[in-house]
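*** Fold description ***
***
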Amino acid sequence: MADAAGVSMQTVSRVARGFDNVSPETRTRVQQAMADLGYRPNRAARALRSGRFRTIGVIMFTLASYGNMRTLEAIADAAGVADFTITLLPMASRTEEGVRSAFSRLHEQAVDGVVIIIESHVIDTAEVELPDGVPMVVVDSTGTTEHPAIDTDQADGARLATQHLLDLGHDTVWHVAGPASSYSAARRQAAWSAALTAAGRTVPPVLGGDWSTESGYRAGLEIARRPEITAVFAANDQTALGVLRACHEVGRAVPSSLSVVGFDDSPESDSFWPPLTTVHQSFDEVGRRAVATLLTQIEGGAVTAATDLVPVRLVVRASTAAPPAR
């Protein structure tokens, strides 16, 4: 390689490792020699020299939900920009044993730091021993962790959704919730209830759900048959889609008879019928902040254990309107 480029081995090493103390002409000559000879940098050898693997571990419960998939994709994109790869460590089950198993496997992985997408309350009671000295960032947490946390402002999103429906003139707002085990669902439900209470409105009983269109559909069948219900805040867009389907089947017109708001602003939400009013959360920004915070730790920088909240915004479309005249 050095002979082909007409430089020293040290110069080849500096170019391969991305150092900037090489002239542009020399760098171009070395890179051309690398291409001609089919050279690829060896990450394992580089890790032995530097003590860094340039790999981020991601521990999470499930890939089934839209939010988790988008968060993982955003983390992978941000890691790639920083020239890091990711290693996925899924939890086998939503149990204490599943949590312990995932964290124990972390000891065996060649990673420089870890992003944990917790999502479930089971972590609160599990006796988990976190590896000492491993940089760590938590996504979707209670906010009580000793590690820095990144999350969407779930509470503000639910408040915006509820207040939007009240501002349109609805007496109150019903809620189809997410799973009881989810931090995000709990915060959205609590903020919905608080917004109604602050406005002096009745807080209806919560309709249970699990993020799925099926659970939204089941709740929607009950909602559609009750004319006194004029506004619904669904815990996510998929749940809202199920509510819309039930309304279409029963013949309950949206939004002239019932207004529906979702949460996520999934790519398909503008193609629901009618197009869905929803809360936009930036998974890309969550991924960027999580990786940036983790890299700061990996480089020895100081970070705080506070939760960094990513702002949300309400996207108003055609699924909400003033309540029907009485």
User: Anything to note?
Assistant: Residues 43-51, 121-127 have pLDDT under 50 and may be disordered. The chain has twelve helices and eleven strands. The domain at 52-151+283-309 is CATH 3.40.50.2300 (Rossmann fold). The first helix runs from residue 2 to 5.
